[in-house]
Amino acid sequence: MNPALEFVVRLVVWLLLAPLLPGIINRVKAWVAGRRGPPVLQLYYDLARLWRKGVVVSTLASPGFIAGPAVAWVAILGAALLLPLGPLGASPSFRGDVILLVYLLALARFCTAWAAMETGSAFEGMGAAREVSYAVLAEAAIITAVLTLSLQSGSVSLCAMLAPAAGPGAALLAVGLFTVLLAENCRVPFDDPNTHLELTMIHEVMVLDHSGPPLAAVLHGAAMKLLLFSVLLVQAVLPVGKLPAPAAAGVLAAGVLAVGVAIGLVESLLARYAFRRVPLLLTTGFLLCVFALLISWDGGGA
Amino acid sequence: MSMGRLIVVAIVALVAAAMGGSRRPRWWLALNWVGTAALLGAAMWILGGGAEWEWRSAFAVGGERLHLRLDRVGGWFLVLVAVIGGAGAAYARGYWPDRERPASAGRGRAWWSALVLCMALVLLCANGLHFLMAWEAFALSAFFLITLERERREVRMAGWLYLAASHAGTLALFAFFCLLAARTGSWDLGPMRDRPGLAPLFWVALFGFGVKAGVFPLHVWLPSAHANAPSHVSAIMSGVAIKMGLYGVVRFGGWLPVPAGAGWVLLAAGATSAVLGSAFALAQNDLKRLLAYCSVENMGIMLIGVGTGLLGAGSGDAAWGRVAMAGALLHVWNHGLFKSLLFFGAGSVAHATGTREMSRLGGLWRSMPWTAGLFAFGSMAIAALPPLNGFVSEWMVYLGLLDAAAGHARDAAVIVPATMALGLAGALALAASVKASAVVFLGAARTRVAAGAHECGWWMRLPMLGLAGACVCIALAPLMVWPLIQRSLGTWNIAWRGDGTPVPLAALGAAQCALVAVVAAGGFLLWFRARANGLRRAGTWDCGYSAPTARMQYTGGSFSALAVGWFAWVLRPDRRRRWPKGPFPRHASRVERIPEAVLERVIGPVGDVVMGASAWVRRRQQGVLPDYILYLVLGLVAVGLLVALGGVA
Fold it and tell me: Which of A273, B209, B544, B626 is in Cβ range 3.0-4.6 Å of B245 for a Cys bridge?
């Protein structure tokens, strides 16, 4: 396919399909709880409504309060565009793009935390502090996963790293990355995306003061981030890049759907952890990645 | 103009500035700029492909003929000396002027030029004896700059600590250069890779230069010196002076045969510095101390790069070593630029409010928009966030490490943990930079001094803008800098000479430019949409809480409490609490202080033991004749025993 066309297709996929995943998760949760639940397309309706709404900004906030969500959204989109999408290879692929992906997510985190601190609210400061602190452990796990993949594939660019399967340590890597996915996207058991008025939350509390189009950017960005981690997880574990195009697309879609269902099931069946135990859980995820690394050290590189 | 003339102009101008600068501020600034511009010209000429410059005097100084040489490794560092030396001079005009600091402003100008000159001489000297002289003069002029405000006790304490630590390092360097001269028979410095017997000397040099570089745990002098010095001095200390230590490691790592374990030790020291430096930075509540610990962290990143470079050079000049070493060199520039920018920003905050205590600040963006914006820029750069320059160099270090891991290099057992440490340090540094910029500049003013702040003048603003501009250039056009790095690397290791770019810098530069463009477009779109839909100001919603006050905001201490708890084993926070008692409690307080753990928990107790032993010995020295006769007899017996045993052996 023409690279430019391919790029446009991937852009469209990321922009348009991302808000579907939270809808699917909510559907699963409703199904387990025996409720009817919100429509699968609920987030689309929300985004459309927010885009038309006015904005209320705290008197304390600087222009950075609007810039924060904008930069974070662009950063997440940029990170997503670095990922190959099954048969559609990433067109700006270069050696070391994986580090750019990790640091673009860090840029998004910086901007979200920055915007949260703008309001001078104790709640939002608390959320920002938690976000940047837990990210320390999550980032260690991600870097370990990156090392595992590059040891395994003998390469340092995303396309080549994600094409083959993760080898003998795949199961460990999958669980480790799934833990990071839950933490980075603020899902149960790290956070509860349903609560809005609790002292114990992370992401939701940071965006309490956003409204209108900036809130739409925040929500859409969060959906893209969730899809990004799901795609990363599926491609890291399954040999999507080695399959013929239609099969690769099918496997990727099925894999992302499976991750969504798994998140929904985790959220239905688990309660949120006490905050003291969150670092323990994240460390467990990190250690799983370390074990996957040790396995691929011995067996990979062939 | 020829190279020699440029250097002569620089030296003459800086000497004149140092001699006459204390009374004539304008002349001083002009002379200082002439000197630094000449240095910059010389360094850029040589990095741009000009021939290396060498000069030997006909006369002798201290028994040795002067031998000056400017090669591309020294030139790389000289650029930084010149840029920060020039920018800081302009900043000092606004920040430390005669009318506000009549006692110390003139002194500060003179020592500033002396410091710049001495650092340039350190980079130029190719004779061990003169290198030591320049090194000592550099350490002393830095001491006088740190203690400019010497009427304050903590400034004097910081100065003495710096002087003591610096001399501990200089002592090691004395040993190093003397041993080197004894083994080679000459004080001349140059490539000596063909003499494997010199390898153990690298350890001595590493200690001596490591103290200056502020490598953990040799960094004990650094936080208090950087925090208590005037901010333009902190900027040049943190941005340039500690790089002189790294220069020593790079220089002699390239000239001397390195011992087998050198790369491993550098990687281990770098990883420790990076992780613990950023953990300490996150825990600080003094803005300038936070920045100082950030320097320890960044020095760790550079050492990881240099260590990987040494490992690469040791395993058949592998390309990954070249990439990591290039990253370390670029990080020298980058860190010098944005750290000086941040210290300038911290200086204008201190100038406007009179405090560095973050829990007393807040909401400064309203009164100091320029400083706030530039400080936020610097924070993002130092957290290595794309699309800024800190990311470019850190990315190159990462790329070298990942390449080595992916290629299953022989030393992967140390490279993989170092990569993980780098990731951990990056996330901690991000937390620290959010803390520094957000607590100081965002939210509501926590005290009256913060509410009454004022923006800094143009003399302080322009240097900051200039440094930010340099950061942007490196960030958006990294490919332009590559040839310069390449020449410097080729001088360091001849095997790495060559025109090829083993790093996809063009792709990275394009990605960074695209990111800037899309961010600008996205920001404007969101702003216009918000304006079109109607933008209204109201109090912070805060879950509907009706009467928030500025004191309810999250403070710096609470922001970092979670991560500080994880690192309590090394940070050893000092907590004193007084709980409220009874139905009408009068007093309740909670004081938390993060001590400099190595200084107060290790060096302090050891020093106490030494002082105790010395006091005990002093009590034996009472001028009583029989005692001395006893000492003599005991000494003779000991010597006799030694000789007898030695004879048997």
Answer: B209
By the 8 A CB rule, do B237 and B146 touch? yes
**Across residues B171-188, what is the average pLDDT?**
94
SS3 (DSSP) at B501: coil
Quick one: tokens of B453? 């702040």
Question: With an 8 Å Cβ cutoff, are A54 and B535 in contact?
Answer: yes
Q: Which of residues 449-488 of B touch A (CB under 8 A)?
A: none
User: According to the model, what pLDDT value does residue A300 have?
Assistant: 47
CB contact at 8 A, B429 and B339: no
Taking contacts as CB-CB distances below 8 angstroms, the residues of chain B near A75 are 386, 515, 519
Structure tokens, B389: 């320059």
What is the C-alpha separation between A255 and A250, in angstroms, rounded?
A: 8
**B151 in A contact zone (CB under 8 Å):** no
Q: Which range of residues forms the domain containing residue A78?
A: 3-299
B428: which chain A residues are within 8 Å (Cβ-Cβ)? 136
The ipTM estimated for the assembled molecules is: 0.95
CB half-sphere exposure, B192, CA atoms < 13 A: 22
Chain B residues touching A99 at Cβ < 8 A = 395, 398-399, 402
| Integer CA distances (angstroms), A193 to A26, B433, B541, in order | 10, 27, 19
Residue B217 to residue B603: CA distance in whole angstroms: 10
Residue of A nearest to B553 (CA): A122
Whether residue A135 lies within 8 A of chain B, CB to CB, comes out as yes
CA distance B442 to chain A (A): 5
Kindly state whether A294 is in contact with chain B, defined as any CB-CB distance less than 8 angstroms. no
Q: Is A241 exposed, middle or buried (0-12, 13-18, 19+ CB in 10 A)?
A: buried
Percent of chain B with pLDDT over 70: 99
pLDDT band at A302 (very low <50, low <70, confident <90, very high): very low
Structure tokens at B270: 């770098």
Residue B433: closest CA among chain A residues belongs to which residue? A110
In 3D, which of A245, A247, A281 has the Cα closest to residue A266? Answer: A281
Overall domain count for chain A? 1
Sequence-separated (6 or more) residues with CB below 8 Å from residue B634? none
**B16 class by beta-carbon count within 10 Å (0-12 exposed, 13-18 middle, 19+ buried):** middle
Buried b (16+ CB within 10 A) or exposed e, B626-642: eeeeeeeeeeeeeeeee
Average pLDDT over residues B623-634: 89
